[in-house]
Write a structure and sequence with these properties.
Blueprint lengths: L2 E7 L3 H12 L3 E8 L6 H15 L6 E3 L37 H14 L4 E5 L4 H9 L1 H5 L1 E7 L15 H5 L1 H8 L5 E4 L1 H4 L3 E2 L1 H10 L1 H13 L5 H4 L4 E2 L3 H8 L4 E6 L1 E3 L9 E3 L11 E7 L1 H12 L9
Parallel strand pairs: 1-2, 1-4, 2-3, 4-5, 5-6, 6-12
Antiparallel strand pairs: 7-8, 9-12, 10-11
Helix pairs in contact: 1-2, 1-10, 1-12, 3-4, 4-7, 9-10, 9-13
Bound molecules: beta-D-ribofuranose and calcium ion (CA).
The site of beta-D-ribofuranose has 13 residues, from helix 1 and helix 6.
Amino acid sequence: MTEQIIIDTDPGVDDAVAIWLALAAPELEVLGITTVAGNVSLSDVCRNAGSIIAKSGRQDVAIYAGSHGPLTGTQRFGKYAHIGSFASLLKDEGSVAVSAEHAVQFIVRKAQEAARQQRPITLCALGPLTNIALALNFSPEVAKGIKRIVMMGGAFSAMGHRTPWAEFNFYADPNAAARVFRSGIPLVIMPLDMTFQALLTEAHLEVLAHDAGEPGRAIQHLFTTFDRNDPGRFLRDGGPVHDATVIAWLLEPELFQGCEVTVGIATTGETAGYCWADFYHKLKQQANATVMRHIDEQGFHSLLQRVLAVYGSKGEK
Ligand code: BDR
Ligand code: CA
């Protein structure tokens, strides 16, 4: 049986890779794409999502626009927010329109249906957790329809990249992250510590551009334009594809190693957005998350290349 997922996202070039990966994988059924302001504004993430879906050829997948900003506090955007939507860079002829239903209503409706049918769904959270926190606040029944939330967020030994202490998704809405951490739903967290271990190089981009059709060429173009190389930090060539690890974990969990821990987040003060994990069980509390600590880099690239080849002449859709 396929795994039913909702992708909550703020595309984002790494969100784009995650979405193309999920849409190409026969093991996953994408019920919908919900958007949240994050990397760029809500209207720009919706425009990007429309163009990503159009490039995949999966116009049957609907987009639901969600939150314009965090539950409370200052709105933060990504490093490239000044550029706005990347849709025009992709020279798209087509795009997928945004549905009338709000993202939070969609998540609530699907989770309630899933609870009734006793077939809980997986939420893939690739941006700030605002929509998901609002959906959980809607009614306690919502949590019963959610099997797990697999999210990209946090930084532990790697420390932050958006600030010295925080990773962007948690920093952009720490209160939403705190709400989700308290939910009791099984959580799987992909932090920077792990996403920094799997870097996409020019050689990988060449392979994708050659083998993965329109999405492959778009990935090469986007990762060249929004350069994620940081040799000072990674001490080698290549840039991370953070959000794609969420989908990769669903497809091949054996590529990852993680541990069950208690995680929490600072929501106020100078270090708001800082996420901590009790790796040495100092608190003696029951774990609320599984934090991924290692990824098999070669295995990750092989997975990307194999699954995304569906979009090229070597694969079949
Ligand atoms: C996360 O923030 C965004 O810039 C990326 O899309 C990813 O979800 C990494 O910190
Ligand atoms: Ca993202």
